[in-house]
Amino acid sequence: MELLTKLFAYINPFTRLGKKQYSIIFPFLVTTLSAALLELYAYGLVKDPNSVNIIAIVLFITYIIYFSFRDGLRGGFITAGFTVLYYCYIIYSRHLTGQTLIASIETTFILGLLYFTIASIIGGLKQKIDILLEREANEKNKLQTIIEQMPVGVIITDMKGKVTHANKQLGKILDIKIQIGSNFGQGKTKNKASQSPLLYVLHTKKPLKRREFVFEKKDGKKAYIQISASPIYNSSGETFAAAATITDITHQKELEKRKDDFVNIASHELKTPITSMKLFINSLSVRMKQYKDVKTKKIIQHIEYQTNKLQELVNDLLDVSRIQTGKMMFSKEPFLLNDLLRETIENLRAIAKEQDLIFVEKHSLKISADKFRIQQVISNLITNAIKYSDPYSDIIVQIEKKGTKALVSVKDTGIGISQEEQKKIFNRLYQVSDTKGKTFPGLGIGLYISKQIVSKHRGSIWVESEKEKGSTFFFSLPILQES
Ligand code: ADP
C-alpha cells in the first residue's frame, strides 16, 4: 500500500510542483520503452508495420505534455527528441519511397516543431511556477523564522479565523497548544472582542490596540496579556487575514499591584501620625499666641504649612488607592455650582502668586454631586493653572450652560502642554517630562483623581492647549433637572 502511494506520488506531476526536481532518466526510459513495445506490437503481434502510426502520434504527444509538466523543459525536450528519433526510425524501417517518403519526412518535421513548441511552452511555464512557489515558500519560511524569534506571541489567521502562522512563544504565554489550521479563540459568548480579538478585527476590519485581558492558566494562576491586532490587506485593499501580537504583562501587573499595595499601606500608615502632628502644631500655635517670639512663630507657621502639604499629599495617595480598589464613595446633594466655584476661587487667592483669578459667570447652574469631591477637581485645576503659569498672568474661571451640561473652564496663559502629552496627563503618575515641565514639583495624580471623580458624576474632563501659549481645562457635569 505504502509502495503504491509512493509510486503514485512519483508519477503524479502535481506533487513535484515547486520542487525543482527535473528527472532525465524517467522520461527517457518511458519513451524508449514505449517505442520498443510499439515496435514489438507492430511486427510481433499484428504483423502490420503501419498499425502503430496513429498510436505513435497520440501516445507521444501525451508523453510530451506529461513530462513537460512533470520534469520541466528537460523532460519535455528529452521526450520530444526521442519521439522525433522514433519517427525517423519508423520512416527508415518501413522502407518508404517516393511521395510517401517525402510526405512522412514533412509530417515528422512539422510534428517535431510542434512537439518542441509544446515542450518549451509547458516546460517553461512549469519551471516558472516552480520558481514562484519556491519564492513563496522561502518568504513563508523567512516570516516563520522572524515570528519564531520574537519575544512576544504572534498569530496570523485567515478570514475565517483559522490559524496560518503562530510562534512557540504564543503557546507558552497562553499555556495552550496552538495548531496550524485550528480555529483560534472562538468562544461561546457574544462578546467577540474579548473572546477573539482576531475575529473582532476580521469582523470590523479595524485594528485593536493594546487591549488587556485576564485569564486563568491550567495551574489556576491568573495571567494578564496585552493584545494588539490588525487586519492584513491584499493589493486591492481587501482584508484577507489578521495578525495579532500578544504580550505577557503578568509580571508588570504584579509589580504594579505591589506598588499600589505599598502606596496604599504607606498612605494609611502616614495618615494617623500626620493627623496627630497637626493637632500638636495647632495647640502649639495657640500656646504661642501669648508670646512675642516672632521668630519661633514663623517657624511654627512654616511647620504648619509643610504639614498641610504633607496631609494633602497623603490624602491624594489615599484617593488613588480608593479609586484602585473601587472604594471611593460619593454622597450627592443638590447645590449651586457657581457658589462652589466662587468659594474655591476665594480660598485659592491666598496661594496665587501675583496672578489675578477672574470668575466669569455666564449662567447660574445647579448640579447634584459630591460637593467635597467637585471642589477637589476645581481646586486641582486652579492650583495647576497657578503652578504652571507666569506670576503676573490672568487665570479665568468660567461657568456656562452647554445643552444639558454645566461647562466649567479654567484658562491660563502658562507653559502649555503639547498634543502628545495632552493624551497622557490624565493617566496615573504622569508628569510632563520636558525640561520646563520637570522644574515643577508634583506627583502627577491630581488630574487622574479629577478624571475619576468627574466620570463618576457622568461628566467629562479634557484639555485644549498649545505649548508656550497656555492651557484651558474643561469639565462638564449634568445640570440638575428640577421637576
Ligand atoms: P501634578 O501634581 O504633577 O501637577 P497633575 O495630575 O495635576 O499632577 O498634572 C499632571 C501633569 O499635567 C503635570 O505634571 C503637568 O505637567 C501637566 N499640567 C497640568 N495642568 C497644567 C497646566 N495648567 N499647564 C501646563 N501643564 C499642566
Describe it for me?
- The chain has 483 residues and is of the alpha+beta class.
- The chain is 54% helix and 18% strand.
- It has helices spanning 2-11, 25-45, 53-93, 98-149, 168-174, 192-195, 197-204, 250-288, 294-324, 337-349, 371-387, 419-422, 435-438, 446-456; strands spanning 153-158, 163-166, 208-216, 222-233, 239-248, 333-336, 356-361, 366-369, 394-402, 405-411, 460-466, 470-478.
- The strands form three sheets. A five-stranded antiparallel sheet has the order 2-1-5-4-3. A five-stranded mixed sheet has the order 7-9-10-12-11. Strands 6-8 form a two-stranded antiparallel ribbon.
- Helix 8 (250-288) runs antiparallel to helix 9 (294-324), helix 10 (337-349) packs across helix 11 and helix 11 (371-387) packs antiparallel against helix 14.
- The longest helix has 52 residues, at 98-149.
- The chain starts with a helix and ends in a 5-residue tail after the last strand.
- Adenosine-5'-diphosphate is lined by residues 380, 384-385, 388, 412, 414-415, 417, 425, 430-432, 437, 442-448, 471.
